Every structure is written in structure tokens, then in C-alpha cells.
């Protein structure tokens, strides 16, 4: 034997070794999959998610009962009714009252109409309240039943008034006698064993505990020896089993890879220097059929693994070894054709296409139309006869292609009917890149445009309705007061009262004038009908000047402003008058709604071609409204509308910034309110 030669015996031995490594890899991998992965990653059972999951389910139920439901009396008294849910129900019924009740009087105030509503709809409100209470009561009893059915862990929980437990023990020292426990009392936490604190799943239970009031809450959990012993034993077995198989994989996987690479390199060649690829009987099988068989056999291995993984792992060896041998023989045959550069040419589809193409070429190169027709008519049955052994496959491919096109056409037809019927949300799903797919995409684009137009129209109508409603409300309030006090003046003789009434009238008329001025300014700003003179503006100086002008109001609200700028001087391209009006509106909004005694942060930073001005303050009222809604006209964070604001300030500021080629956005994070203004940077 020459040096570096590859005898059949060597290749056979390496092939057997590769199959052995492959079988070992599959078996070890299956073994690892049959045990919980925590058994490999964690050092002990008490660090695993399986251990903490037992406590998490219980704590989740306890948390709901102690924080939401408390006791049955609390539920029956409506203590679990959410304020936002009840407000939504009242609003829906109040709209029904406005539309259908004969007692609704648009000339009366909102408060007076609301009192009439509560009297007339008392029964409906009572029924809705009873529905919610019954629903919450069922959920409360479901949670109680779940606690009663809990056998492990043992628990004792108290919120200072109510007690929930599945054991007669109620002392902390009693729970500490168990081999594993979780104790939470006031602000103290005691977890045993200590390795429980190392668990990456500890946050599961800590999130539940943190939602409880630590001042008067006590929660004790403990696991008995009888519960833990089988769990610990099973975890130890799984851990040892998983580690052993992972170690095997570190040997089997590299061994399989190296042996396969060696075989792929030497297959078809008799030595390293032999440039010729030698084929055998298996290599005459067409590559596309070869690939199909590989896929079929690999799928069969997966199916067998799925069938036997829970029955008997030893059967895996008997089932996969012969199939694996056949698969790798076929794969190495394809490797030979890759080396010989005949991978695509040695395929049945390629041969058929080549023959058909040659036939078509010959037909079009020779003879007239009549000859071409005769040749096609005669050639087709001949072609079928020559490929009779593949006839089901060729017919199947042709039928599949035709069916696919028919389905695409049918999908487009159905889609057009749906869209014609008014279903603008319907999407025509046609896969591929052909004409049908392009047509479907064009139709979908048309429906997208129609849907956007409809949505914009509905949004415009909604905004118009809300604007009219809010304008009517805000203007009617001072106007009603003016009418009332004018009537009082007509009959009042006391000069002191007359003077007081006139002062109120003066305030209300100024308020009415301010509202109409703001409304006019908002309309003008949104239309863009304002002259703009862009120039270089030092925004740091402008903000400092603005803070100086409202210093008395800042002092009155006990606010502390913190201005931070990336450089002492930051210039933007803007209209000084319009920019100041925008900043003034933002500052006015902060002074009206910021929490008294809090800090307000103003940051100025350059971000490439733009300058970002950010105002951050804490809201005095709960912000249970979205940022998009706040940007709408006449929308306020103060939903009671008790403040003197018009709700137009931010809308005006946004319009003024936009006509200066800038952008104004707001963000809400809890009670943190952010106003962000982006303006073009001034470039020398």
C-alpha cells in the first residue's frame, strides 16, 4: 500500500466509527432532553425553578386575596370594584341618558344633569354594580378554594385582620423547624436554605411579596421532609444523568465531525494526489432522488425518536443505526458529485429539463408552424413514454404548479369580493414573486390606502366632535356664570354685593376672552397662516429669559428649576417670537400642573443637525391619559377640568414649533411628564 493511500478497509473502519459517534450523539442528546434543564445549570434543587414554582403559585393567589379581595364583606361592599371600570360604566349610561331621557336638559349645568341621571338610572347603576360584585365574589371563592386545596407548601399568611393558612401552626419559630422555608414578616425576609437566594427565578416570588404592605403583613411558607425527599432524590438523579450525557456529547460530537470530514475528503479518491473521482453503483442514483431519500429517512429517524423516547431508549439504537448507515452512504455519494462538479447535472430534473429544452430548440429551429405543431403533438406522448418511470412525479409537479396558480387566482377572486363587500381589513395572501403575487400586493396596497383614509376620516370626525363638545363646555361655564350674575345685578340693591358681582363678572369675561383668543390662536397656528422669520436664536439665553419672567409664579408654586446645557450657548434656526410663545406655553403648562414643591429639569443638547430641548416635571394629578390624547385640543391631565387652563397650550405650541420646521412631542412615564422640542441646529 502506498503512503497516504486510502484503502477500502480504512474507509470502512472510519465509517463504522462515524456511525458509532453519530449514534452516541443522538442517544446522549435524547437523554439530556428527557431531564429538566435546570438539573444541569443549577447547583442544587433549591436554586431550580421547579422548587420556587411551588411557592409562586401559592403566593400569587395569596397576594390577590390580601391586596384586592381581603374578605367577603369587602367584596360585597364593592371594595374590589376598580374606579376606571366603574367610571366607564357610568359614562356609557350617562351618554344613554343624554340621548334617550326626557329629563335631560342641555340648558342645565353638567352637575345638575348628572344628579338627574343618578336618580333616573339608579336601578341600572345598581344592577351593574351587582354584576361586578358577583363576578368578584366568584373569583374570591375560587382563590379561597385553591388555597384550601394546597397541600404543599404549608403556609400561614395574615394582613393584620384576615388570616389564611392550611396548618395549625402560626408561629415563626414553628416554621423554622422545617428543612426549607420562606419567611416574610414586616420588612424582614428569611430564606432557608441560603442557596435559594442564588436562584435566577427568585424574582417570581419577590414580585408577589413586594406588592404586599410590609407594615402589617406576615407570610410564612415551609416544605416538609416528606415533600422534599423525593424531589431532592429525583433532582440529584436528573443532575447526575444530565452531566454524564453532556460529557459524552463533548466526545461524541467532535468524533463524529472529524470522522465525517475525513470521509468527505477521501471518498471517491484512492490517494491524496489522485485527482480523479471514482464512482460506484450507488453514485448512479440521481442526486435529487438521493436528496429526497435523505430527507425521507431523516424524517423517519425523527419520528422514531419521538415514538420511542418515552418507551425504551435502547430501541433508538436499533431503529436509527441501519437508517443512519443508509443516509450517510447517500450523503457521501452527493459529496462525490460535488467534487466532480456534477451535483446539478446528475439530477433527474436537470436531465428532463435539458432534454425538453433541446426538443423545443430543435422544433423552433427547423420547419414551419405546421411541422412544429406536428412535432409537439408527436413528441409529447413520446416524452411521456420515455419517462414513464417518473411519470407520477412529473405529473405531480405539473398538477402542483397548476393547483398553486389556481389557488392564487381563487384567493384574489375571494379577496376582491370581500373588499367589494366593504371588508377593508381583508388581506389577500399570495406567496411568491409572480404576476398573481404582484396583483395581490397591489390590491392590498389599495385597501391599505382606503383603510387609512377611512381611519383618518373617523379620527377627524371624532376630533371635531370632541372639539365642539369641549369648546361648548369651556365657553358655557364662564358664560353661564355671566348670565347668572347679570340676573343677580338686576335685582341687587346692596352696593357691596353689586361690587362683588361686578368683580366676578370681570373675571369671567376675561376668562371667556382668554378662551376665545386661545381658540383663535390655535386655529391660526394649525392652519400655518402665520408669518415665519427664521433667524439665529440662542435658545439657552431665551429659556433663561423666560424663567426670569415667570420667576414670581415659580416662587408661588415653590418649584425648583434645573437648567442644564451641553454648552453655554446653543443656537437654533427659529422665529424668536414664535419660539418664545411656544416655550411660554410649555412653562405655563408646567406651572399649572406640576407638583408643588418639586423640581423641574430643563435639558438642552445638540443631537447632530438638531437641538433638543427637554422639559421634565412631576405632575400634581395622576396622569391616566395617553400622550396622544393630551396633544389634542382642549384635553387636560386634570380630567375634572377644575383648573383655569383651556387645554390649548400644548396644541398651540406644537403647531408653532412645526411651522418652524421643528417637532414637539410629549412622553408620560408614571407621573413624570416630558415635553420634547426638536429644532434645526444653526450651522455657520
Q: Tell me the name of the CATH class of the domain at 530-680.
A: Alpha Beta
Indicate the CATH topology of the domain at 530-680.
Answer: Heat Shock Protein 90
Low-confidence stretches: 1-5, 633-646
Biggest beta sheet attributes? 5 strands, antiparallel
Q: Quick check: average pLDDT? A: 77
How are strands sequenced across the largest beta sheet? 2-1-5-3-4
Gross CATH architecture of the domain at 530-680: 2-Layer Sandwich
Rg measurement, Å: 40 Å
What share of residues is helical? 55-70%
Shape: extended
Taken as a percent bin, the fraction of beta residues is 5-15%
Question: In whole angstroms, how far apart are the ends?
Answer: 83 Å
Give short descriptive properties of this protein.
alpha+beta; 684 residues; five-stranded antiparallel β-sheet; single chain; extended; five-stranded mixed β-sheet; Heat Shock Protein 90
